[in-house]
Design goal:
The chain is mainly alpha-helical. The chain has helices at 28-35, 42-47, 51-54, 74-87, 91-115; strands spanning 14-16, 38-40.
Length: 116
């Protein structure tokens, strides 16, 4: 059932105000094409609940991260990307793990020094 009075955003997206106005998609391509021209309206957003209320088995939201710029020599970056690829993860993810692990080790070492 298509509505006659279409509301558009300033960017030209059609507002979807009711969940019944979202069609059943046959595949992701069809869904992507729909959402390329539509967006949630205030009415539909007001009907939504936080994901964890809908399904408490979902993990909690990740803490936000801050973008930074860091420079590496090209050979170090190449080695990092190669190692990340062998592990099947992105190089930035691997780098964050390395930093987190080293930070944990250094903090533990510092606590040991402070205790003596």
């Amino acid at each position: 059932m298509e509505r006659q009075n279409k509301k558009l955003t300033d960017d030209g997206f059609e507002l979807v105000e009711d969940q019944r106005d979202i069609p059943a998609f046959r595949n992701e391509t069809e869904e992507a094409a729909f959402w390329a021209t539509h967006t949630f309206g205030d009415g539909l957003l007001a009907q939504m609940r936080p994901a964890r209320e809908v399904d408490p088995r979902l993990p909690p939201p990740r803490a936000s991260s801050s973008p930074i710029t860091i420079r590496f020599e090209s050979d170090v970056l190449h080695r990092l990307r190669t190692l990340a690829a062998t592990r099947g993860i992105g190089y930035q993810t691997l780098l964050k793990r390395f930093v987190t692990e080293r930070l944990y080790d250094e903090e533990r070492r510092q606590r040991g020094r402070d205790a003596t």
